[in-house]
């Protein structure tokens, strides 16, 4: 009595028709096109419409200047405040360390609208610290300071995580040798630990800057979109999308250029560090 051969499933049928290597190549090409075509289309459209001619209109230059200024301050704040935290997480073992690490990295995956709402509830006029700030004569929402706070909140975790990993990879014997030579405390950090991790820190900082430059959701909720005050490049794109599409396209191309430069810098520093 002959048995009936089992029916082939869909994947087996496809593999019989198309060789595995060919199928893998086609899948890779499809993924590559899907990820790159929107960027290519944006650049092509900018060239076709001469979108750069909108550079002097629609507050584009003001948005570019504000974005570069606020992200520069964001980077400085991230280094000053994030480096000690990253070092502490890398070198100290304590109960609840994993929870603290998760909380520090949470803004990376937090929905932008939630991040902006949280900042508003914490630092707004009616927020948790609002009355205290009002007493001191400070008003953070809908100000340039609010833009910087929003950018730092969403971007700093990229640097902190990279710095934490970098500090963990430093050979303890090298630092021990430095202590023998008389280095200790901040001197040990500045003369030995920091030079050994500088490239990894730079890579993390480049990614953090790129994230700050592209921040939109938290900024528009916490800082609004006031030209020359809080309107960064992503907010300009949102505002000009229906009114002056060329200005929006050119701002988008500029953001792509900045992001590409930051990514290439991060990859170069990361590769050179290995």
Provide an overview of this structure.
The protein has 274 residues and is mostly helical. It has a single domain (55-273), classed as Orthogonal Bundle (MetI-like fold), CATH 1.10.3720.10. It has twelve helices and no strands. It has helices spanning 10-17, 20-48, 60-91, 97-109, 112-123, 130-135, 144-168, 172-180, 186-213, 217-222, 233-240, 245-273.
Low-confidence stretches: none
The first-level CATH class is given as: Mainly Alpha
Distance between the termini: 64 Å
- Main β-sheet: number of strands, strand sense, barrel status? none
Rg, alpha carbons: 24 Å
Class per helix and strand makeup: mainly alpha
Which CATH architecture is right? Answer: Orthogonal Bundle
The CATH fourth-level homologous superfamily: MetI-like
Overall form: globular
Strand content: under 5%
CATH third-level topology: MetI-like fold
The helix content, as a percent range, equals over 70%
Mean pLDDT: 87
The beta-strand count equals: 0
Number of domains: 1
Total number of helices: 12
In N-to-C order, the SSE pattern is HHHHHHHHHHHH
């Amino acid at each position: 009595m002959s048995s009936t051969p089992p029916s082939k499933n869909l994947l087996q049928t496809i593999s019989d028709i198309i060789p595995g290597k060919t199928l893998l190549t086609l899948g890779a090409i499809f993924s590559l096109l899907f990820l790159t075509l929107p960027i290519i289309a944006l650049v092509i459209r900018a060239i076709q419409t001469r979108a750069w001619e909108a550079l002097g209109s629609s507050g584009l230059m003001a948005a570019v200047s504000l974005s570069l200024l606020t992200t520069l301050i964001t980077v400085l704040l991230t280094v000053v405040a994030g480096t000690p935290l990253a070092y502490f997480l890398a070198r100290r073992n304590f109960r609840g360390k994993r929870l603290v690490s998760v909380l520090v990295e949470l803004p990376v995956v937090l929905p932008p609208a939630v991040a902006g709402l949280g900042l508003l509830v914490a630092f707004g006029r009616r927020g948790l610290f609002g009355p205290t700030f009002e007493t001191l004569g400070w008003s953070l929402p809908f100000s340039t300071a609010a833009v910087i706070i929003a950018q730092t909140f969403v971007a700093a975790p990229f640097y902190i995580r990279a710095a934490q990993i970098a500090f963990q990879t430093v050979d303890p014997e090298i630092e021990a040798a430095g202590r023998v030579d008389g280095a200790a405390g901040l001197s040990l950090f500045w003369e030995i630990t920091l030079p050994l991790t500088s490239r990894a820190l730079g890579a993390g900082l480049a990614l953090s800057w790129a994230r700050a430059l592209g921040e939109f959701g938290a900024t528009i909720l916490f800082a609004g979109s006031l030209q020359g005050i809080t309107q960064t490049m992503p907010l300009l794109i949102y505002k000009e999308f229906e009114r002056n599409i060329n200005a929006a396209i050119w701002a988008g191309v500029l953001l792509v250029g900045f992001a590409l430069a930051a990514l290439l810098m991060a990859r170069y520093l990361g590769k050179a560090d290995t």
